[in-house]
Request: fold
Amino acid sequence: MPQTQHALAPVSGSASPPTPSPASPTEADLLDFVRRTAADSALIASLPLDPEGRTWVRLDGPGGSEAWLIGWPPGTGTGWHDHAESLGAFATARGTLRENSLAVRLPARGWKTLELAEGVDRGRELPAGRGRAFGRHHVHEVLNASRTEHAISVHAYYPPLPLIRRFSRTGAVLRLEQVERPEDWQ
Reply:
């Protein structure tokens, strides 16, 4: 099994993901939920904020999804990661978050290091009121780049997260560093 795969190209079209059952929330359902929840000023104000570390509260998401309200002190971020087989969405309730992502589909397994082709990087700013949804195996990092202001966001995933793969990145090289399971963060 090779340790390095080279020249992953940008995703130009998308293969159809498995069709969810009628009761399963879609990316659009998750995005609608996180936007509505981010607009709930009483809920947002109830989140305790820590000046040094992220804080979070688990929420009930739609259709059995996993949802979180997260506080981001200035200068904090997630690092590069994915959410395995889960669909996801997040919306900023306060402040501004930056998402850096890769416009490629990574192999689900069988690799430790990948060399990324040029043109796969994407970035977007998500000020309060803005959100985005994403599909399975979406690799990204989320950051509060502000030096002075906390940010707060709402996140939802379906199915509930089976695992998170964490990556390091140096230039075009992405390296799988760790696999976390729900018991590691709950």
The chain has one domain: 30-181. Helices lie at 27-38, 41-46.
